[in-house]
Amino acid sequence: MLDDRKLAVLRAIVEDFVSTNEPVGSKALVDRHNLDVSPATIRNDMAVLEEQGLIVQPHTSAGRIPTDRGYRLFVDRLSAVKPFSTAERRAIETFLAGAYDLDDVVMRTVRLLAQLTRQVAIVQYPSLSRSAVRHVELVPLANRKLLLVLITNTGRVEQRVVELPGDYDDQSVTRLRTVLNSCLDGHKLTDVASIVAELPDRVEPRERANAAAVFSVILETLVERHEEKIVVAGASNLTAADFSQGLREVLEALEEQVVLMRLLGESDDESSVTVKIGAENDVLGLRSTSVVATGYGSGDRALAKLGIVGPTRMDYPTAMGAVRAVARYTGKILAES
Amino acid sequence: MLDDRKLAVLRAIVEDFVSTNEPVGSKALVDRHNLDVSPATIRNDMAVLEEQGLIVQPHTSAGRIPTDRGYRLFVDRLSAVKPFSTAERRAIETFLAGAYDLDDVVMRTVRLLAQLTRQVAIVQYPSLSRSAVRHVELVPLANRKLLLVLITNTGRVEQRVVELPGDYDDQSVTRLRTVLNSCLDGHKLTDVASIVAELPDRVEPRERANAAAVFSVILETLVERHEEKIVVAGASNLTAADFSQGLREVLEALEEQVVLMRLLGESDDESSVTVKIGAENDVLGLRSTSVVATGYGSGDRALAKLGIVGPTRMDYPTAMGAVRAVARYTGKILAES
DNA sequence: CCTGGCACTCTGTGCCTACGAGTGCCAAGT
DNA sequence: ACTTGGCACTCGTAGGCACAGAGTGCCAGG
Fold it and tell me: CB of A251 under 7 A from strand D?
């Protein structure tokens, strides 16, 4: 049904349309690619491709453009991730290596990705739920108030103010700090909930009220407050692709943390680059955009995800190459620090 | 030269143009406002206003639109900040009061401001240089590495990894922590530089190398790293005002921290609302936008600034009212916490 | 100083035509 | 069975033109 030449035609249509942003006709195809057939033959092939729902023509007597399904087939079977040259990879690595703390790593990553792909880049902070506690700190702030600082092995610092039901003295704070550190240190954040549940036994009865307040804030911070932090860069790149009137909706969607989480979160395989095309993103308002994403991490396991958002008319091979390369080197940097 | 009626005409032109986005003609003016004169009279007035550079016509035989100078005069002499109703103020207050830490306060503030004004909102984090040290914490991370955590009285937490030249033991870290806290606690960040300069005398000689590394990072963090953090929200509101092709440049400018700093930073008076119109912002690419900004703080002194960015064609009285109200209540929340 | 009248200058719109790109289909060739 | 050339058909785009409408500037009169 779809022989090799028809697939080649589809590939050519996608490539031409991506680079010119104009519907591509049969004559232009045979000229620009060295297909050894006549335009009429191509037209027949095109008719079949259109019947399959892989391409459409915007209006009668215009060239064809790929549909979401067409892009999907292109990505799955007709294209390969474009690898980066060694020079490019070295540039990426040195740029990221200049970062001096976690915030800076994430910031540099998202900007780099936006610049490389000329799309909107989104990067999720290394996830709380997959990292481990490295240190817990309690800082007396004022009467009946403590600042709780949680430091993870990914260098992330979480802070919350705790309001205590009763007064405290320095000794009790020190004791509590010691208990927390000895019990939580090195444990995965996912296990913290069950550990904290058993902690009250290890605290003197008269201090339990205050301790309980601290414990509940820890749980809130780590468990209930699932909103992972996500940063965005390169929104101005959206103006290049003419979204006619959808631009507003795209910008609005990109400001919603929840939407970004869903965009990144739905992919199953964490180590490879996944592509969601057009309506495959069931986010309203992003029906005409594609998402290229992957997981990244400091070791073998993925800590979080990053990716790009752009028009469905996108240079997928290059975008996938950039996402993969950036994810790899960001993970490397995180592992080293 | 500019009598009362001419000023009233200017005011009417600004108001009409802001609400309709169409050049306003003499006939429409007398209809919509109750000026007891004929259109011809208005035309004469308009000619004078145009001669003064306060209004222009986009093309011959079109209505007039205000120039930057026209808006300037309007803001300075023809309009009053529009106060918010008590209901609105209560809504603002309760919305902000729900925040549970500094990040959340800032996040809520910027979103609120964007929503109230339907413009792009920018909020600067409470400035380091005007707050005081509340606590310094040193956390052993790995061999020859410490995590330095600085906590300010505005609830802001700064973190940096310190690479030490030599090994350390727990005791030396504890001593250093004690010294730092006793010397820096409660001092303004602006004074920290001079205090730190004298600190080496209070450290044992064999620990000076490590201590010096920590001191230099403190200085870097507080002094050299001037990039104050700024958050932006409501970029999608830019699509409502049609910037024709300048949209890309505006979006690009809004992603540059440095540009945002300049936008907010140039106003002298910190307690009142300042307005920069069009080319008064000497930032390239923001020539057709206006900035309405003010300082906000937890007490009598301003800690940082916040404001909005929008097209010069903006409802200034309402925008100024919103900026003032939000600044006031955000400051109040910060003072309470 | 205000007002009504008048001529003038634009822009925007609708309509028509011509043109060109591109297709679909068919009959003929390999 | 597939490919090819030819041909008619469809539509979107661009240019030309006339026309209406909005708005102005100016002038003479109140």
Answer: no
